[in-house]
C-alpha cells in the first residue's frame, strides 16, 4: 500500500512476527542480519494464551480468525481505498522499542498491513494496555511530519501537522500524528539494532475491541510504508521465515517459529525452488502465480475467475503468513475436492467441522494416507506434506484445510507453508522455498 493513501487497510494477524529475542550477525560490508523468534498468539509464551483451552479449541479459534481475515483481505483487494478490517485477527506478536531512550512495547505484526502505529500520549481516548503508553515528549529522536512534506501527500493536515486515520470493520479506530522515530530491536544478549527515521502513526485517539496486551500494529507488507521497505537499506530487501507445524503451535509447546532479516537470510541449496514475486495493486500483499495442483499423477489447472482488473491471472494468489487456511476459487475447489475423494482410501465423515467440509476418520497417528501433493507455481514445483493440507480438528478426524474462497483473490495460508524455510528477495522479486524441519531451525 502506498504511503500517500489517505486510509490504510490494516489486517492484523500475518503475515509475521511476535515476542522475540534477536541475534545480530555481521554479513558483508555494512549489512546487518538478524533473527527473531515468532511466537504464535496461542503459544504459552503469548499474553493471549488461555491454558484452559484444548488444542482443538485453539484450532477452532484460529479457523475463525482465518475466515474473518480472508473476508477482509478480499474486500481490500476489490476496493483498496474503502478499507474495513478486524484489528484482533493477528496471529503473531512483536516486541519492539520506540524512541530515544527506547521504550519497550508489544504490537500485533502483520504482512497484510503497511502502516505501523502505536498508542501515544497525550491521549484523547486510549484503550488500556499493560505496558506504558509511548510519550513522544520524552524522546529526543521523535519528529512529526509537516504538511509540506511529500510523505503527507494524501493525508489530513491540521496546524501544519500531518495526521492519519484508520477505521476498522468492527468500529475500532486509531487517529493521530504521522511521525518519524527510531525503532530499536534488542537481543537477549544485549545487542541492539536501531533503525532511525521510521515513519509511523502516533495514535492519540484509539478505541474499540483492542486488548490490553498490545499497543498497536507493525506493518510488514509490501507497500512503501511498511517496515520491510523502510528498512531496505539495512536488510537489502531480503527476509525469510520458518513456521513450525500447527500441532507444535497448539499443544502447549514453547517451540517457536523464526523470521530472519538481511543478506544472510538468502535461501539456497539443491532442494530449493523459487518462483517470481509479482508486483500488482494493492501493493500491501505478496503475490505469486499458481499454475495448478497435482494429486498423485493427476494435475488440476488453476483457473482464476475473470474479474475486471487487468493482469489478474498474473499473480493469482497471495502468500500470507497471517491466514491459517488456504483459499482457492470455488470452481477449482470443487474439482480439487472431487479428485481428493477419488484418491483417498479412508472413511469420509459427513458434516462440517469448524467450517471445514472434506473430513475423514484418521488412523492411530492422527493422519490419513494421501497421494503425493504438488503445488505448481511458475518455475517452482512445491511438494506438500499431508499435514500441509489436512489437520486433525477433533480426536480421530482430519479435515482438508484448503477451502473455497469466492473468486476475488486466492490465499496460500500458513498451514501450507509450515516446515518450509521461505525466503523473500524484494530486489530480485522472487520467493524461495526450502523443505526444513522448522522445530529445529
Describe what you observe in this structure.
With 441 residues, this protein is mostly beta strands. The chain contains seven helices and 29 strands. The protein has helices at 55-78, 227-230, 232-235, 246-250, 330-343, 386-389, 414-417; strands at residues 22-26, 32-38, 92-98, 103-110, 117-119, 143-144, 156-158, 161-167, 173-186, 192-207, 216-219, 238-242, 257-261, 273-276, 287-288, 290-295, 298-301, 317-319, 326-328, 348-349, 359-361, 373-377, 380-384, 390-394, 397-400, 402-404, 410-412, 420-425, 430-435. It is globular. Residues 1-31 have low confidence and may be disordered.
Task: Summarize the model shown.
By secondary structure, the protein is mainly β. Helix content is 13%, strand content 34%.
Characteristics:
441 residues, mainly beta, seven-stranded antiparallel β-sheet, six-stranded mixed barrel, 7 helices, 13% helix, 34% strand, disordered N terminus, aspartyl protease, glycoprotein, Pepsin-like_plant, TAXi_N, Peptidase A1 domain-containing protein
Architecture blueprint of SSEs:
Blueprint: E1 22-26, E2 32-38, H1 55-78, E3 92-98, E4 103-110, E5 117-119, E6 143-144, E7 156-158, E8 161-167, E9 173-186, E10 192-207, E11 216-219, H2 227-230, H3 232-235, E12 238-242, H4 246-250, E13 257-261, E14 273-276, E15 287-288, E16 290-295, E17 298-301, E18 317-319, E19 326-328, H5 330-343, E20 348-349, E21 359-361, E22 373-377, E23 380-384, H6 386-389, E24 390-394, E25 397-400, E26 402-404, E27 410-412, H7 414-417, E28 420-425, E29 430-435
Parallel strand pairs: 4-11, 5-10, 18-27, 19-26
Antiparallel strand pairs: 1-2, 2-13, 3-4, 3-9, 5-11, 6-9, 7-8, 8-9, 9-10, 12-13, 12-28, 14-29, 15-18, 16-17, 16-22, 20-21, 21-25, 22-23, 24-25, 28-29
